[in-house]
Design a protein that fits this description.
30% helix, 196 residues, Aminopeptidase, eight-stranded mixed beta sheet, 5 helices
């Protein structure tokens, strides 16, 4: 996939738009990240102590994401509602070859949580990923993150098991419950577009 094509990927349903991050998003993105830090601290992976946490400029961050798109290693997107960036949905860790799979991640501004925005965004990006040839998608969720469990269940991702001490979050290695969906499984319900 070329950079040009990646920039043109825009997925929409009603007032929700899922699209790649752009350089002109810098102020809005940085403000959203700053405001959301306390809300996301319990759920967002961080670099463990003793590992380098390299600082990166916003422009370099956007370039990095375009490279991932071009190499089909990740499909990182922002979630917009009524023209405002309110969150993030991505498929990362993409492996092709025999696996053809990736991991779904997402977060949303606290004021927009519980409105069905995240399940819609995940459904849009998952449909896109399956159309690109991915066979399997996983969502890994901390057991106590009930809201994220609801997202996986609403979308028909099946529960597969527990990964012990899977990601470093909020100062500790945390267990994660894993949910999965494959391209050949039925995708029904209000968050999936008809026929997806």
């Amino acid at each position: 996939m070329s950079q040009r094509v990646a920039r043109q990927v825009i997925l929409t349903r009603d007032s929700i738009v899922v699209r790649p991050l752009r350089r002109r998003d810098e102020q809005q993105w940085l403000s959203l990240r700053r405001q959301s830090r306390p809300w996301l601290r319990r759920w967002e992976a961080t670099v463990p102590p003793g590992r380098p946490d390299r600082a990166i400029t916003f422009s370099a961050y956007v370039r990095q994401e375009r490279t991932w798109w071009r190499q089909q290693r990740a499909f990182p997107m922002v979630i917009e509602v009524d023209g405002d960036i309110v969150g993030r949905v991505s498929i990362g860790g993409i492996e092709w070859g025999a696996e053809c799979g990736g991991s779904v991640g997402y977060w949303i501004r606290e004021s927009h949580a519980g409105r069905g925005i995240v399940p819609t965004a995940v459904a849009l990006l998952s449909t896109y990923a399956f159309e690109q040839g991915l066979h399997r998608l996983e969502i890994a969720v901390r057991p106590e993150n009930i809201s994220s469990h609801r997202v996986a269940h609403k979308l028909g991702f099946r529960e597969e098991g527990l990964r012990r001490r899977y990601l470093f979050i909020d100062g500790q290695w945390r267990d994660h419950q894993v949910f999965a969906l494959t391209a050949d499984e039925a995708r029904t319900g209000p968050f999936w577009a008809p026929g997806s």
